[in-house]
Please model this.
Amino acid sequence: MLDLLRLLQDGRFHSGAVLARTLGLSRTAIWKRLKKLESELGLAVHSVPGRGYQLASPLSLLDEHLGSFDCLSYSCPIHILMSVDSTNAEALRRLGRGAAAPFMLLAEQQSAGRGRRGRGWVSPFAENLYCSLALPVTGGVSQVAGLSLTIGLAVLRSVQAFGAPSAGLKWPNDVLVGDGRKISGILLDISGNLEDRCNVVIGIGVNLNMLLDSDITQPWTSLRQETGKLVDRNEFVRHLSGQLAHYLGRHWQHGFSALREEWETAHLWQGKKVRLISGDQEIAGSVSGVANDGAIRLEIAGKEHAFNGGELSLRLRNDS
Ligand code: BTN
Model:
């Protein structure tokens, strides 16, 4: 099916006869595969007599020859999956079976993409970036402190470079555009024991080409919505890999403290009045910044307090 999709991904018309000849199939076989594309991948295909078949919207498929990229002192192989429940879950399974980190998994589609705080992550076929980077952690817990914020900076720089210069960060690791539309989220999983040798799986979702979705319950956007142009997902992966290598290099060498100021400059909610939510508990304060371990620093009744934890989330107060 992928070979047919590669021919159709430009969004132009292709005659059934040429598709059949190119792939060495009958026209009926082509027609059946097109029906499968529609039913299994949710892609709409236009069929016009005399012109042929056209995808309702062009696609940017991942290139199976993306190969590898240099990250820290390693060469990190990139593996492409057609469909998976969650790239993070798959990376954890592979580590559990003894696969050696580093490696990066990219998927065309996730059937059960995971977000923070038990949420899902909408992952339609070939539209966005669904990426998990598995890295070995040799320096103990302190290496992981603030790591997800460092990754936020890397993602932010790629999102800005691909046409959303106004994008910024929201603690702990959302990338937002304009008045608060989410374009990217990050989810860290640890495999093994932090006190000993372990691996970290850095899950990154970036909305690249998605134009419509009714299942997302918060304001969101994609690079294509911002720029009106289809993003080449392979170019985005190459750019992001470079940013990850750069920021991870700094983080691994000096810790998040070396990136703290840069992070605070990019924080859209710096100085804002917020509510910090943990389950059904709420604390009101204003954002003073972040700490060297990535905790959020809030000023509450004239005193500064730091908070950290995977279940925490920030909301703007109505009077902010
Ligand atoms: C968030 O809630 O903001 C975090 C979203 C993280 C989504 C990415 S997509 C790739 C990786 N695989 C997953 O299942 N989740 C992360």
The pocket of biotin is lined by residues 86-88, 110, 113-116, 119, 121, 130-132, 174, 185-187, 203-205 (CB under 6 Å). The radius of gyration is 21 Å. DSSP finds nine helices and 15 strands in the chain. Residues 9 and 59 are 5 Å apart (CA to CA).
